[in-house]
Design goal:
The chain is mainly alpha-helical and about 120 residues long. Helix content is about 60%, strand content about 10%. Belongs to the BlaI transcriptional regulatory family.
């Protein structure tokens, strides 16, 4: 699995997963809509992501272009698996039961789970 990324790094990755390659300034322009971060903060986060081999860099004249090296779905699969393994002993059912018991599942959630289970049985 890819090295874990922080919540702040994840915000940057979401921008890159939507559209890449981007310069640090372009990433900052997108992130600033959600966070009150400076360009330097975004550059620091991009550097950390590059060091973790989650983001690649390509020189474009005097600037760098940043692109994700990990697909969003692949990252989410790894993080989800790690979460279930760590907190629920690798079993999904205790997670679903916990959410249901805590009234975290809406009627729509339950309907979607039922539809998913029907599809998986086919």
């Amino acid at each position: 699995m890819t090295e874990r990324i922080s919540d702040a790094e994840h915000a940057v990755m979401e921008v890159l997963w939507k559209r890449a390659p981007l310069t640090a300034t372009e990433v900052a322009d997108q992130v600033v809509q959600q966070k009150d971060w400076s360009l330097q903060t975004v550059k620091t986060l991009l550097s950390r992501l590059a060091a973790k081999a989650v983001v690649g860099t390509e020189r474009d004249g005097r600037r760098f272009l940043y692109s994700p090296l990990v697909e969003r779905d692949d990252y989410l699969t790894g993080v989800s698996r790690n979460f279930v393994d760590r907190l629920f002993g690798g079993k999904v059912m205790p997670l679903v039961a916990h959410l249901a018991e805590a009234d975290e599942l809406s009627a729509d959630d339950i309907r979607e789970i039922e539809e998913l289970l029907r599809e998986l049985k086919k």
